[in-house]
Design goal:
Strand content: 5-15%
CATH class of the largest domain: Alpha Beta
CATH superfamily of the largest domain: Type I PLP-dependent aspartate aminotransferase-like (Major domain)
Structural class: alpha/beta
CATH topology of the largest domain: Aspartate Aminotransferase, domain 2
Radius of gyration: 21 Å
Number of strands: 12
Order of helices and strands: HEHHEHEHEHEHEEEHHHEHHEEEH
Oligomer: single chain
Distance between the termini: 52 Å
Number of domains: 2
Helix content: 25-40%
């Protein structure tokens, strides 16, 4: 057979899925693993919603590419009520997870430059390249809470050589991997620069309902004409494996773009699974139950974030408390000399050592667009069973794995 190797596209395995696979393999071998690498909600889907899915198992028909109309209406009402949005069901597209929808939004452009903060979620850059676009990065720092600044964004736009090519910023908050979010003032200042340079923004708000503060300001409040929203069930409803997401495209983008996105969707996932759409409809319709469920999750995540942050700081690690979601983004640069003496000079070296020495699974900052030498990691503090909060057995689930995992990291650092 004639060799095809030179013609195969380079695309790495998703780092988040890979670390989950490696952790499971170590556990099967009898090794203890503290699962801080894979970011999956520890809370089960509420029983009423699971039952709605079971009752819809007979639904086998293809639904419209855009999505089940009652589901789209429920999504709009849900987010308009909880987050003071102004979503229209007619501008919503339902998909098999927000991940494929972000790809569809990118692939609907023939040519674009995709701008990403470093760090950003692991799949943004590969998806942009798979869609045929160039990728540029805006570096952030611990001192700036891993956030992009208006003057930084303005400087980048002023330095572009071809302003005719659409510039698409993929903007995620609360952030995976940093756990940081933006205040109303910060979003408003960024919106001024975005409008000045006609930036198209894909606003990934998959963690927005898990924001800890009462200020749930969102970019579309200040930049509604060019903010394409994506979100879904996976984080707030504990339903990652259900693969149910949506995007809301403002009318200002016009029917040509909307139909282009639908076209890409029709040629990729066809439609979200029919039974899942029926179960999701109930999830979005029962707003009062969602508020109670979210309140319990937020309280627990906030407490765990504080515990992890305090202990890591005492060990000398640079780390900010999470402001939403379930991630921390520790920086170990102050240990650089001691780590170098152990042959550890990159964030990947660091995560490999912690896995091999202590069984702590983390993801390297380099997987999220940071430089190899940044000595940053993503820590997902979800290694616990959240089922107890649904039946009120305990106000707080058993967090022994998290406590022991953090202790292992701190002890390992003390022994350097």
């Amino acid at each position: 057979m004639k060799t095809i190797a030179p013609y195969i596209r380079t695309s790495k395995h998703s780092q988040t899925l890979l670390i989950n696979q490696l952790s499971l393999e170590r556990i099967k071998s009898g090794d203890k693993v503290f699962k801080f690498g894979f970011g999956q909600s520890p809370f089960p889907v509420p029983e009423k919603i699971r039952q709605a899915l079971a009752n819809s198992a007979h639904r086998k028909e293809y639904m419209s590419v855009q999505g089940h109309p009652p589901l789209r209406e429920a999504i709009a009402s849900f987010h308009n009520s909880l987050e003071n949005k102004n979503l229209s069901s007619g501008q919503i597209i339902v998909g098999a997870g927000s991940k494929i929808l972000i790809y569809c939004l990118l692939a609907a452009f023939e040519c674009a430059e995709v701008l990403l903060p470093a760090p950003s979620w692991v799949s943004y850059a590969p998806q942009a390249r798979l869609a045929g676009h160039s990728v540029s990065w805006l570096e952030t720092s611990f001192d700036d809470n891993w956030k992009i600044k208006p003057e930084q964004l303005d400087s980048f736009c002023n330095s572009r050589t071809d302003n005719n090519i659409p510039l698409i910023l993929v903007f995620n908050y609360p952030s995976n991997p940093t756990g940081q979010t933006y205040s109303a003032q910060e979003l408003q200042a960024l919106a001024l620069i975005m409008r000045k340079h006609n930036i198209i923004v894909i606003v990934d708000e998959i963690y927005s309902l898990l924001s800890f503060a009462k200020d749930n300001s969102t970019l579309d409040q200040f930049y509604p004409e060019a903010s394409i929203l994506t979100s879904g069930l996976s984080k707030w409803c504990g339903a990652g494996g259900w693969r149910l997401g949506f995007t809301h495209i403002p009318e200002q983008f016009g029917q040509k773009y909307f139909q282009a996105v639908l076209g890409v969707a029709s040629e990729t996932y066809s439609c979200a699974p029919s039974p899942i759409q029926m179960g999701a409809t109930l999830a979005y319709e029962d707003i009062q139950s969602a508020k109670i469920f979210l309140g319990k999750q937020i309280k627990i995540f906030n407490e765990i974030s504080r515990y992890c942050t305090q202990n890591l700081r005492q060990a000398g690690v640079n780390v900010h408390e999470a402001q939403g979601g379930f991630y921390l983004f520790p920086e170990f640069k102050q240990f650089r000399d001691k780590l170098k003496a152990r042959g550890i000079s990159t964030s990947e070296d660091l995560t490999n050592a912690l896995m091999n020495d202590r069984g702590v699974a983390l993801l390297p900052g380099s997987a999220f667009g940071m430089t190899d030498e940044s000595l940053t990691v993503r820590l997902a503090f979800v290694d616990f069973d959240g089922a107890q909060i649904l039946n009120n057995e305990n106000p707080l689930p058993n967090l022994s794995n998290i406590r022991q995992g953090i202790e292992e990291i701190c002890n390992w650092l003390h022994e350097l």
